[in-house]
Amino acid sequence: MKKVKLNVNNEPSKRQKLIGKAWLLVLTAIVFTTLADITAAMAQDGNAGIEAANTQVRSYFVNGTKLMYGVGALLGLIGAVKVYQKWNAGDPDTGKIAAAWFGSCIFLVVVATVIKSFFAV
What we know:
Number of strands: 0
Radius of gyration: 36 Å
Shape: rod-shaped
Order of helices and strands: HHH
Number of domains: 2
């Protein structure tokens, strides 16, 4: 390998500066080209992504509605047992407790039905 002599001030020669600039230009071009290729490969149509999300959420909605109906049925059974116990114990606020449990079950069914019709699922 050839040794390069530096001039008296330890500064690179004009030729060395030119070679350094050329390498810097080549490396910069490679980096920008790579970034442009990566960006183009990762880019996708925004409408296609939104449509895919819409389809996926709509497919979950049917199962979510069934789950909500199941939770409503379970709450109805628990509420019926609690109201029965209070009624047998002779509590005076049995009607209020029955209305609260019945109202919560009706609310779950109505919410599921309204959301289903509102979003046309």
